[in-house]
Amino acid sequence: MTRPRKFGTLLLAALAVTLPTVGGVGAQVGLSCGSTITADTTLTADIGPCPSFGLIVGADNITLDLGGRRVFGTPQPLDNAGVYMKGRSGVTVRNGTINAFDAGVAIEGGSGNTVTGIRAVDNIGRFSGGVNSRFGDGIAIMSSTNNRITKNLLRNNAPYSGVGVYTLIDSNHPRDTSGPASGNLIDSNDVLDNRVGRDGSLGSTDNDGIRLETNTTGTIITNNRVNNSGLDGIALFVGSADTVIRNNQVTNNGLYRSAARNGDGIMVGRASDRSIIENNFVRGNGDNGIVVRNPFGALPGATNVRVVGNTSVGNAVRPTINSVNFGPAYDLYDRNVDCDANTWFGNRYRTFNPPCVTNGGQQV
């Protein structure tokens, strides 16, 4: 399900006029909630509680070092992102804690930014009076390319993901950046306990650990620990082609949803062609360990996918929820007839369907 993202209540044009701009180099100078950063800056004190944006990045090729400090929002809904950058390139955000916003860090448009050493915890995009926050992730990449998300802790963010990558296309909301999200790197992060649903409960959760929504291409997901997500550990939505998922630990995800389906460890969505799923450890997930989706209606299945050298054991731990698109679950599952043009080789597994997923593998 594609997330609703277009409901913010503050206009950024107005923010640009009313919020302070800070250009102090190398230290915190006059910073407060909603300040715009235009030069290298290091925090020397916590900032918050912020009723809207925490800090806004207003220039390219700068570093915002949180200095081990905390930027924090409020328990109220619609407090937007702790660190927000729109149309920025070459920015580094590092070394601190961001919590109690709708999102920890939000990158919209631009390219080549780095987020590292950030603890994004308890960032929850809540509903308020029928209005839905635009955000709901620890770190969100929206219509932005070639960013690096590395060595962060992303815990208890909701309702969408620990790390979410989105291609935004919405002609009804021209103030929102639109265009591809491609070439992004998500490496060496701890993505833990992102499980609360849209209504604040666990039973209806579709919260993923790492979430690539429709038509996000060329993402590299490596060396992450993804545990205890509400739905899927790593989810590739329709058209997330040329994705690499390698050397991740994906465990105990998808144990909470009580309707529609349980969560998979790694889910390769329809038309996510030429993706590589390699050398991952996948265990204890609610539904399938690794699954490649089949055609449905006008949507083709995922083809030319390579699933090689993974260990996927002890999955399907929740009772099966039967529906039109979902049913029995396995450690390895290709829902395309005879695996279509997909390659499965050298995987370790216990349960499987169909036999073509077992080529060169070992049943343990």
CATH fold name: Pectate Lyase C-like
Which stretches are low in confidence, meaning pLDDT under 50 for 5 or more residues running? 4-20, 171-175
- The total beta strand count reads 37
Mean pLDDT over all positions: 89
Radius of gyration: 20 Å
CATH architecture: 3 Solenoid
**Overall 3D shape:** elongated
Proportion of residues in extended strands: 25-35%
CATH class: Mainly Beta
What is the oligomeric state here?
Answer: single chain
Termini, distance in Å? 34 Å
* Structural class by SSE content: mainly beta
Describe this entry's structure for a reader.
The longest helix is centred in the N-terminal third of the chain and has 7 residues, at 12-18. The chain has one domain (83-363): Single-stranded right-handed beta-helix, Pectin lyase-like (Pectate Lyase C-like), CATH 2.160.20. The chain has one helix at 12-18, and strands at residues 21-22, 35-37, 41-42, 55-57, 63-65, 70-72, 81-86, 92-99, 103-108, 114-121, 127-128, 131-132, 137-142, 148-150, 153-155, 161-166, 181-182, 185-187, 190-192, 208-212, 216-217, 220-222, 225-227, 234-236, 244-246, 249-251, 266-268, 276-278, 281-283, 290-292, 306-308, 311-313, 332-334, 343-345, 348-349, 352-353, 362-363. It contains 1 helix and 37 strands. Strand 11 and strand 12 form a beta hairpin. It has a 20-stranded parallel beta sheet that branches. A 13-stranded parallel beta sheet has the order 1-2-4-7-9-13-16-20-24-27-30-33-36, with no helix packed on it. By secondary structure, the chain is mostly beta strands. It is elongated, with a radius of gyration of 20 Å. Mean pLDDT is 89; it is low at 4-20 and 171-175. The protein is 2% helix and 35% strand.
